[in-house]
Fold these 2 entries.
Entry 1:
Amino acid sequence: MKFYTIVLSLVCLGLMSTSVQAAGDPVRGKDLAATCMGCHGVPSYTNAYPTYRVPRLGGQHTDYIVSALKAYMDKQRPHPTMHAQAATMTDQDMQDLAAYFSSFPAQ
Ligand code: HEC
């Protein structure tokens, strides 16, 4: 009896996570993006202070954003700031952030 309960809950969990991971959630992504906006804020695409240029994320493809974040996480892309940002993200965080940023119109 107990065994079936465990199997059932595992199956439910599995179903839930596949449906959640199918696509990023832009609403959750917007919450997660609050920190990013300090640097990747529109419209000037520069950090507030000190002033330096950052890449534009709005309208970027989701796959591109996710693979860039993974590259920062793995240090394939060497950038200490973005490594620090990406290091603590889950796959779902990346998907959600990408869904949010890609929802802006490309310019
Ligand atoms: C302290 C400033 C800062 C913060 C905060 C920040 N970024 Fe960045 N980000 C940068 C800079 C600078 C670069 C360019 C790095 C490089 O040259 O590789 C960058 C690059 C990127 C890129 C690659 C873009 C491209 O066109 O190659 C992505 C994707 C990205 N950031 C996403 C995020 C996300 C998502 C967050 C929030 C979780 C975030 N960043 C927070 C400064 C920041």
Note: The pocket of heme C is lined by residues 35-36, 38-40, 47, 54-55, 57, 65, 68-69, 77, 79, 81-82, 85, 97 (CB under 6 Å).
Entry 2:
Amino acid sequence: MKKRVTGIPDPVLRLGIVFICFIGIVLFIRIVIIPSPLKETGSQRTSAIERELSREIYFAGSDICSDCHDEESALNRSGHHKYLSCETCHGPALEHTEDSEILPSAPREREFCSQCHTYNLSRPTGFPQIFPIAHNPLDPCISCHDPHDPKTPEIPGECSACHAQIERVKIGSPHFFLRCITCHETPEGHKIQPRLVSSTKPVEREFCATCHSTESRVEDTPKIDFLIHGEDYLCWQCHYPHRPEIEK
Ligand code: HEC
Ligand code: HEC
Ligand code: HEC
Ligand code: HEC
Ligand code: HEC
Ligand code: HEC
Ligand code: HEC
Ligand code: HEC
């Protein structure tokens, strides 16, 4: 290995020079370039805290609301909206907590709820979503869902929940044992959005004939000669289907 007069090997000398240059640059930046206030880490932190503290405060946080609105708070805490803060919906309400004459807003319009609940592929799987145009478009969301405890309303199991009058009429009639869906094909969706998803109705005489024509194999039903009995008319122009009674 080549040696200089100093007796230090060449590679070590080069490495030493690089190191000294590095230290030099760091010191130069620290001493000359960085302005002095930025160098005092302590004071910089305090000034940042002061700066943030001097900002005006608008939000009160959800805890304080329960002092005066325990009912809404309790509902909200136990329901599906428990992770939403009160002020997400009611807007900044600090002023209100200091002077309850100043009322916060309450978002009653459909557009507000739709911000979070409109169908959007990028939302997490299972997040409850709807198409606002198709989802009960005529009514405000809060007429069916309590904003503090939103639930999906229970879907009625029985047709009689909405067609009570027809059910009552049928109970007292010879068609008592016939189920509604024997004569009406009804998709489940009809019970959720009856005006959008409709139920079928019999359209032809042949339908009644399946049980009532003399050809029919269904037992224990009064039979008629399908070809001549009331031939020019639909059966239900003479017999009310939900209470077929013949005048004797
Ligand atoms: C010091 C008691 C107090 C506190 C704390 C308080 N409120 Fe109220 N709040 C009231 C009073 C009083 C009313 C008026 C009630 C009325 O008019 O029936 C009211 C009314 C409201 C209303 C109804 C507005 C409307 O349009 O009818 C909302 C919403 C509301 N407060 C939200 C909040 C929220 C959110 C908080 C927490 C950030 C909060 N309040 C904290 C006393 C309070
Ligand atoms: C998802 C949005 C949402 C959240 C979260 C929410 N609210 Fe409401 N709040 C509403 C809407 C919408 C109304 C109006 C309801 C109405 O008119 O029937 C309302 C009404 C109110 C009222 C007036 C009650 C009345 O009968 O008029 C009070 C008080 C209230 N909220 C307090 C709170 C408090 C306290 C919290 C937090 C614990 C909270 N809200 C959280 C949407 C929300
Ligand atoms: C800031 C976003 C946000 C807003 C605004 C909002 N929600 Fe929600 N909503 C949620 C979250 C989060 C859930 C809970 C989702 C979960 O349980 O996975 C939820 C759940 C629901 C559910 C489903 C309950 C169930 O049975 O699964 C309904 C219904 C609902 N919200 C109705 C409303 C209505 C009505 C409004 C307007 C007053 C509204 N939401 C405003 C975020 C929001
Ligand atoms: C006429 C009553 C009615 C109105 C108005 C209404 N909903 Fe619903 N909502 C229902 C019923 C019933 C269900 C349960 C059946 C279903 O999934 O469609 C439901 C279900 C939901 C669900 C849960 C969907 C899921 O897949 O879990 C959300 C979220 C929801 N509604 C939000 C809203 C929002 C937001 C609005 C306003 C833009 C609104 N609803 C208006 C009756 C209503
Ligand atoms: C949530 C309430 C509700 C439930 C549950 C319900 N319906 Fe309906 N149904 C309605 C409403 C509302 C209408 C009227 C729709 C219209 O005027 O467009 C209707 C209309 C009908 C019609 C007449 C359709 C037409 O074109 O004239 C038939 C048939 C019917 N329903 C059968 C049924 C049967 C069968 C069931 C049970 C399997 C049932 N419905 C359950 C609300 C309901
Ligand atoms: C024997 C068959 C039959 C049964 C069972 C039956 N329906 Fe019908 N329903 C009909 C026929 C046929 C019509 C068509 C009447 C018309 O167009 O005038 C009809 C019409 C309707 C309508 C339209 C409005 C009206 O009063 O004309 C509704 C709603 C309806 N049915 C609901 C029901 C429900 C709910 C039940 C069960 C409680 C039921 N139906 C059981 C045959 C039946
Ligand atoms: C699934 C079989 C079935 C269908 C479909 C059916 N019915 Fe009936 N119908 C019956 C039964 C069962 C009786 C009662 C027999 C008894 O009382 O012993 C009956 C009785 C009657 C009676 C006699 C009432 C009386 O007082 O004796 C008339 C009229 C009648 N149905 C008309 C109709 C009409 C109109 C339709 C078509 C809309 C229809 N039925 C569809 C099974 C059916
Ligand atoms: C023009 C009116 C009219 C029409 C349309 C009509 N009926 Fe009748 N139906 C009557 C009259 C009136 C009676 C009672 C007198 C009789 O037995 O002929 C009756 C009796 C019946 C009976 C009872 C028979 C018995 O022996 O007890 C049945 C079942 C019946 N009809 C079913 C039907 C069916 C199914 C249709 C459609 C294919 C139909 N009707 C169409 C008027 C009509």
Note: The chain has three domains: 10-53, 65-143, 178-238.
